[in-house]
Amino acid sequence: MMKTLRHFYRNIFAETILLLVVIVQIISGLKLFRSNRKIADSKFDKLQIWTGLYLAIFLIIHLSAVLGGRLFLQLDTNFYFGVAGLNSFPLNLFFIPYYGLAILSFFGHVAAIHNKKIKSNWLNLTPNQQAKAILIFGLMLTVTIFYGLTNQFKGVKIPKDYEVLIGKY
Q1: Rounded Cα distance, 2 and 9, in Å
Q2: Of 81, 66, 101, 100, which is closest to residue 166 (Cα–Cα)?
């Protein structure tokens, strides 16, 4: 699937737009964090502020790693590039929380915004309960994603070309 979709997103036009959108998202998120962190009063307001900060930091690190892998290490930034650290001890002690918090932060951010913007019940759930359901779904999806990225928690064998990412040469 990645090879098929790359024709659409891996060209100079699409990549430039994607990069600019992410940079704008990071800058605007950091500005919002700075201006709103002292006035956030509810749990969901605080969740929105802190998940937004984590997502901004994650995007900076993630983009730097992917661009560095492509430009400097001359690696295809494919599945193996993404899961090398996740499937290698002791690097996975960093990458499990790093990726896990990114996914949970995304859903936390969505849940916080949902809680703030939605005013009506749906399926007898209040907006607050709906937001909590979004968080629970995010947690379940996080576990499911890790299940897939680690070959059912058994580990993925990393090809030789990608061993540079985990300290093997």
Answers
A1: 10
A2: 81
What are the residue ranges of helices labelled H in the chain? 2-9, 12-36, 43-71, 79-83, 92-117, 127-149
Tokens of 41: 């009063």
pLDDT tens figures, 72-99: 999 999 999 999 999 999 999 999 999 9
State the Cα–Cα distance between residues 77 and 28, nearest whole angstrom: 27
Determine contact, residues 91/162, Cβ cutoff 8 Å: no
Length of the chain: 169
Rounded distance between C-alpha atoms, residue 105 and residue 59, angstroms: 12
CA–CA separation, 44 and 112 (whole Å): 5
- Tell me the C-alpha distance between 114 and 48, whole Å: 10
Q: How far is C-alpha 111 from the geometric centre of its chain's CA atoms?
A: 15
Q: Is residue 13 classed as helix, strand or coil in its secondary structure?
A: helix
Structure tokens at 90: 């002791």
Model's pTM, two decimal places? Answer: 0.92
Q: Is 124 helix (H, G, I), strand (E, B) or coil?
A: coil
